Amino acid sequence: MYKNLIYLAAAALLAACSGPRSPQEKLTVNDKKIDAIIAQMTLEEKVEMLHSKTNMSSAGVERLGIADMHYADGPFGIREEGVPNGFQSAGWKLDSATYFPTGSALAATWSEELAYKYGTGMGKEARLRGKDVILGPAVNIQRLPVGGRTYEYLSEDPILSAALSLGYTQGVQDQGTAVCIKHFAVNNQETNRGSVDAQVDERTLREIYLKPFERAVVEGGAMSVMPAYNKVNGDYCSENEHLLNEILRGEWGFKGFTVSDWGGTHSTMGAMLHGLNVQMTGSNYLGQPVIDSIATGALTEDLVDEKVRQILRVRFAIEAVPDDVANTIMTSQPECQDIALQVAEKSIVLLKNQAGILPLSKEVKRIAVIGQNAVLKTQSGGMGAGVKALYEVTPLEGIVKRAGSDVEVVYAPGYKNFPGRRWGPAPATPNPLEAAAIDEPADPALLAEAVALAREADVVLFFGGTNKSIETEGSDRTNIDLPVGQNEVVKALYEANPNLVSILISGGPTDLRQLEPVSPAIIQGWWNGTEGGTALAKVLFGDIAPSGKLPFTFPAQLEDSPAFAMGNFPDKNAGGDLFTLMYRQDRTQMTREQIAEMMAKMPKPVSKYTEGALVGYRWFDTKNVKPMYAFGHGLSYVDFQYGVLKASADKKGVKVSFDITNNGKMDADEVVQLYVHRLDATVEWPYKELKAFQRVSLQAGETKTVTLEVPVDDLRYWNVDKNAWDLEHGKLEILVGAASDDIRQKAGVAI
Ligand code: BGC
């Protein structure tokens, strides 16, 4: 009997050892079955799987019971159903989804747990729509304050981005939907995004730009990856041997499949040999030319089999939703709307609060809400990341509802909205609330109306910022100035009534040099999803304490930020983004081939990353440049007291613990941040780097002990001589605080 037990235990141990170990290896469990299927497929059937079937699907093999793969944008909500061959609306009724806070808002929560929940919400709604793969999360590092997709991306810091990218990935995939993590890699600008060559050194690539992808792939088991439009060090990402074959598949052990960004495949041989599985969209490279190349012997069918196997691994891991089950109920579900609310509540950043003007006092009986950003919806626009939301609570709606019948809320638009690039002929009667240019000065009539309301109010809430035409995929901003005369408006409002709070509704940073002196309080309110207005009202009225922290630096002026200060951006060859045109034959009357031909004639732009690892706060700290608001900054309605650090280091890494107390009268969260400064380094490092963080919830008066751990791997640097991760031994100063410029406690350790 004992003998049997021993045999059983040994067998179990053996099974455990030989079974799949890493999240990526789990994808290979069906490889035998998959190979049997591949053996039954014709070459034509296999090649059909290597390119788009419709604008948002790639083919399975009906004959063998293999379902098509259905994709859905985007990172912040399951995108409205489009017509089969384009992005135009299919006019469905049940495809309104939950609009989740956009990337920088999610990042401002500094919460891997919330990123996970967010992912579960996205994954759940994808299933309801019959989608297998979500084209997200979008996790590139925010290199440029002007970046058109800064709002889609998470943070300027790799450790923060990587934690959120991991949480999001696991959340989605735990719901039985695959992520397609994008845009791999170094996709940090929209200017010439279809052709720019990002020239970045290997150390910076590894330590900064690849980190958020690495964790999602290695720890999160991300099942698919979207190579970006741009080139990295000379090669397009969709045919980049170093990125796709050496790093992604070789070093990180990726077992799933890659899908080019839409229109981002550039050749048959490049894509086939250097790591692409699926051309999206079109078949001019990964269709008939593959069959022809096999006929001539330039490619082998084995290579096609390998690519099909990688796709089928995901097809087997993700159960296809039957046609009669998908799209039978509304995509947006209450539990997901609730997740959107939870994220929004924790994302709002209180940048400034002089004389405790916030939360609004009970004495406030009349509120003047000024600025169109209080009423304009933010769900759509921005191209791929737009959402047809089931509903969206605007800031004004949230405030009116929360204020109740005791408090009068009056509203004036204050300024004209800049609607961005127009397609087609101008409307016969121009909208009087729309500006013709982004830098149009304030409209005197709108200004006078707003000032009159401000004068008679107890408090003025000024809503400024940008919109999703100004910050959008396809183009970068030319500056970060507040648009359409907003500075003029806020100054006039302050003169009329200095009891003023400015709330910025934008995805990226703006230049606050004029707004700051006339705003006793400032909030960064983001594009905060379906329940954004509800969450904002809760913060304004003090139902909850604000607890978001900036995931990127607000430079005082654009020229202070690294790529600008180094003269690396904008590049001299800047031109238009033709991808924007590619799918709009209805509007451009040009074929894709004609557009590709135009592209080929365009100058070949380059983006040099000579600022190296000094991205965001790493630059501001190292170069001693004072930003307007630092990375990690965010105030609360309470004070937190940080106790003395107990720090130790061993082979596994660094461990720090300390007490933190909420000294205030309400419950509140604090995001504690741990930075590492090297004291005796011989290798070059930024002045300090974020290495750990934690969101801590504390009741009024409560003290908790917090423990932060930095795994030794996060202390390594990429040694270019060894072409490997390496550890520099020496003394570290551990800096713990509430922001990158608000360090409360220090300790020393040696590694
Ligand atoms: C964007 C991707 C998006 C794809 C499909 C591209 O233009 O860069 O992020 O997923 O379109 O909509």
Structure description:
The protein is of the alpha/beta class. The chain has 3 domains: 2-73 and 109-317, TIM Barrel (Alpha-Beta Barrel); 343-552, Rossmann fold (3-Layer(aba) Sandwich); 623-750, Immunoglobulins (Immunoglobulin-like), CATH 2.60.40.10. It has a 7-stranded mixed beta sheet. Strands 11-16-15-14-12-13 form a 6-stranded mixed beta sheet, with helices on both faces. Helix 6 runs antiparallel to helix 14 (334-347) and helix 7 runs parallel beside helix 9. The longest helix is centred in the N-terminal third of the chain and has 17 residues, at 2-18. 54% of the residues are buried. The protein binds beta-D-glucopyranose (BGC). Beta-D-glucopyranose binds at residues 73-74, 135, 182, 261-262, 384, 473, 579.
Mind telling me the C-alpha Rg?
Answer: 26 Å
How are the strands of the biggest sheet laid out side by side? 1-2-3-4-5-7-10
Our count of helices gives 23
The largest pleated sheet is described as:
7 strands, mixed
Ligands present: beta-D-glucopyranose
- Low-pLDDT residue spans: 1-8, 10-17
Strand content: 15-25%
Q: In the CATH hierarchy, what is the superfamily of the largest domain?
A: Glycoside hydrolase, family 3, N-terminal domain
CATH architecture of the largest domain: Alpha-Beta Barrel
The CATH topology annotation of the largest domain reads as TIM Barrel
Overall tally of domains? 3
Helix content: 25-40%
The level-1 CATH class of the largest domain: Alpha Beta
Shape: globular
Q: How many runs of DSSP E, i.e. beta strands? A: 27
Distance between the termini: 51 Å
Return the average pLDDT rounded to an integer: 94
Structural class: alpha/beta
